[in-house]
Amino acid sequence: MKLKLLTLALATPLLAQAQFAKSDALQWGLVLDVGAASRELALGARPQGAHLGGLELGVASNLGEHFAGRATLAAHSHSHDGKKKIESELEEAWIETRSLPAGLQLRGGRMLAQLGYLNEQHPHADDFSERPLLYRSFLGGHYFDNGLRLSWTAPTALYWRSGIELLSGSELNPDAEGARPSIAAWAANTKLGGDIGRSQSWQLGLSYLRNKAPGSGAHEHEEAHEEEGHDHAHGARYQGRHLWIVDGVWKWSPGGNNGVQQLRLSGELAQVSRLNEFAGSGDKHRSAYLAAVWRFSPQWETGLRVDSLSLREPHGDHFHSAKLREQTLMLAWKPSHAQSLRLQYSRQDDRGGFDAAAKRSVQLQYIVSFGAHGAHSF
After folding, report:
1. N or C: which end of the chain has fewer CB within 10 A?
2. Residue among 34, 143, 122 at smallest CA distance from 70
């Protein structure tokens, strides 16, 4: 049975890489993300004032008939001792198979973990300038790690992909103390997707992350950084042994042409449990968001996102509750496939525990890309 064109667009990461590396020749791409913010958001990644939202240099190539590889070096601004600093990191450096039978694919190296809807894509491909609270709180905004992944895509008309990853956990728990196993985390995921007629498509996913060496909690983590005069958080801010994420996406393009008009609805729900050895059954972190983006003409999009975060912060053998709400409205102009100019307004409501929440923040973001880059995921 033939797959529909839109279902093919949902397929494996190997298909997404086909545009990036059609031959053995080295392909390179550069993405520049610059912006300005009236105020830094609580748990946000963009500091107040003008900043470098991101600079990504990527190279990729097929390595003969059976393998392909990719490397991505990234840099961005962050706040350090009240001053802006530029931090660089290697986000990707992996090799994957191209010719395993039965829909199997093996990838090894540093890679973006297959968790939730957004984590597999680079932040410059997002619809909003800041990621949802779920990612900023539980996954360090953008979780990549060293490890090994085995994924399987079923040979069915309905898109079905499943995978399992063994991960070092070093990027998730950068400040973990004491001896740590070489494989400190593992993840599993499955996704289903398909078409409804010629104008609609959908995708549902379920992800699980087991963190074998979670930090002692956000409270102690932040105190340690304050003692060092360091206010930039690394890794997951709020951790636990188990993380579950459910995600869903629905897209509708009147007439089937998504380049002219398209409505995109997406949402995710996450729960973190086993926060520490004293945590009871009711001591869990939870977060959810719902986003709607409307492309009302080929070059213009507008979107709304509502976020919620509910925490049980560990303080030794007892816990304090904290809650944060966030609403975001954006307007984006995309004069070409390689450029985006986005104006965004965000409002945060402190429901307890977030005294530094921004009542209002206005952000301006400009993204431009040069050279080749991988096709965006569904």
Report:
1. N
2. 122
Find how far residue 373's CA is from the centre of its chain: 17
Q: Write down the pLDDT at residue 215.
A: 60
Q: Measure Cα distances from 181 to 117, 167, 235 in Å.
A: 28, 10, 17
Residue 360 contacts residue 38 (beta carbons within 8 Å): yes
Number of residues that this document lists for the chain: 378
Measured distance CA(118)–CA(122) in Å, rounded: 8
Angle (CA) 173-176-182 rounded to 5° is: 75
CA atoms within 13 A on the CB side of 85: 10
Quick one: tokens of 353?
Answer: 């525990």
Locus of tokens 């997406």: 266
Q: For residue 103, give both structure tokens.
A: 């829909």
- Is the pTM higher than 0.85? The answer reads yes
The alpha-carbon radius of gyration of the chain (Å, integer) is 20
Q: Coil, helix or strand for 14?
A: helix
User: Is residue 324 helix, strand or coil?
Assistant: strand
Diameter over CA atoms, the chain: 62
Helix, strand, or coil (residue 24)? coil
Q: What is the mean pLDDT, run by run of 10 residues, along the chain of 378 residues?
A: 37 40 78 96 94 95 95 89 85 97 97 97 95 96 96 96 95 70 91 95 98 62 38 73 97 91 98 91 95 97 98 88 97 96 97 89 97 75
